[in-house]
Amino acid sequence: MNYIFAFLFLLVASTASAQRIGTVYGPGAQSCGKYIADRRSNDQVVDYQYVGWVRGYVSGYNIWGSGKQVTKEADSESILAYLDLFCRENPLKSVVTGASALVDELASGKR
Questions:
Q1: pLDDT in tens, 63-109
Q2: How many whole angstroms separate alpha carbon 90 and alpha carbon 14?
Q3: SS3 readout for the chain
Q4: What gap in Å lies between CA 111 and CA 109, rounded to an integer?
Q5: Each residue of 7-63: pLDDT tens digit?
Q6: What are the Cα distances from residue 19, in Å, to 15, 49, 92?
Q7: Hey, which end of the chain has fewer CB within 10 Å, N or C?
């Protein structure tokens, strides 16, 4: 019986340490619905803000993350296309969630 409790404790502890908790600032904090509305404006400055934020997120992942590094940089058009698709399919999620999904895909080597 003690083994079961020890196993459950280790499972919960390892899962909790794998999840990062923190406050997101800037364009990454926006909802995907807001992102889609911003993209409809066809304002390149807005696009650059999102792309710059995602590139910073990827850099932070490479510096502070404990997973596989993202070694190939995605171009601006690819980043926006990825977020466009992610956010259309998930309007209630946040841009940071889409950026995280992009990092997972880039780090896994799928392209």
A1: 998 878 888 889 999 999 999 999 999 999 999 999 999 999 998 87
A2: 28
A3: CHHHHHHHHHHHHHHHHHCCCCCCCHHHHCEHHHHHHHHHCCCHHHHHHHHHHHHHHHHHHHHHCCCCCCCCCCCHHHHHHHHHHHHHHCCCCEHHHHHHHHHHHHHHCCC
A4: 6
A5: 333 333 333 333 466 899 999 999 999 999 999 999 999 999 999 999 999 999 999
A6: 7, 26, 20
A7: N
Q: Distances from the Cα of 61 to the Cαs of 23, 42, 65, 67, in angstroms?
A: 15, 29, 5, 8
Rounded to whole angstroms, how far apart are CA atoms 58 and 83?
14
Which tokens hold the place of 76? 């601006």
Report the b/e string of 19-39 with b at 16+ CB within 10 A: eeeeeeeebbebbbeebeebb
What are the structure tokens assigned to 68, written together? Answer: 């596989």
**0.90 exceeded by the pTM?**
no
